[in-house]
Each structure stands twice: as C-alpha cells, then as structure tokens.
Write a structure and sequence with these properties.
This protein is of the alpha+beta class and 113 residues long. 19% of the residues lie in helices and 14% in strands. Strand 3 and strand 4 form a beta hairpin.
C-alpha cells in the first residue's frame, strides 16, 4: 500500500519508466478479474510463464508488446492529457495490484527516459 499521506500528482514517473521500477509479476486476482471481465485487451499484453506441464498453471508477467513479444519500458495504459503535463491510467478501475500498491514510499522511483 502507498503511504497514507501520498498524493498522486499524475506526473507519470511511475509508468513512463517501468523497467526495474516495480515487480512485473501479476497477482492471480488480476488475471482472474480480467478474464471474468473479458479484458482481452489487457491480457494480450501479459506473458504467461508455465510453472509445469499444466498450461493453466502459469504466472503472468506484465507488460509485453503483443506484436513483438518485447518487454515495454513504458506502461501501455498510460496516456498524457492533451495540452497538460499530467497523465492518466486508461485501466485505472482494473489496474494490477502492483500498480495499486505503488509507491511504497513518498519518493517516486526511477529516472524518466
């Protein structure tokens, strides 16, 4: 959970440079929700890593470009507001747990590239 006194300034720092900024493994509850809600648009950006011979037993890792298979450096759901220096999350209502729990401190992590 973010610190109680944390106020998001919509600067986008947490989402513009996600490599190494936070854990990219997804919670099972996120994947279950997206499947239930039919959010294939989100699921196509998830790479599933099998944990054995059963294909349903896998861990989901975010975010991978569905066309190239490459890990992205910037969250695909981040959008800059027109003519403003603010950003929004396009999947805010169903964003993954690691995003809901970010940041762990009041300092934003990572440099912008």
């Amino acid at each position: 959970m973010p610190p109680k006194d944390f106020i998001c300034k919509q600067c986008g720092k947490c989402c513009r440079n996600i490599v190494g900024a936070y854990c990219t493994s997804l919670a099972e509850e996120d994947i279950t929700l997206w499947r239930k809600e039919g959010r294939d648009d989100i699921l196509e950006w998830v790479r599933f890593i099998p944990l054995g011979p059963d294909p349903d037993h896998a861990v989901g890792d975010a975010w991978f470009n569905p066309r190239s298979g490459d890990e992205v450096k910037r969250c695909p759901w981040l959008r800059k507001l027109p003519r403003k220096d603010k950003y929004i999350c396009r999947i805010h209502d169903v964003k993954p747990k690691h995003c809901r729990d970010y940041p762990q401190t009041n300092e934003c992590a990572g440099e912008i590239s």
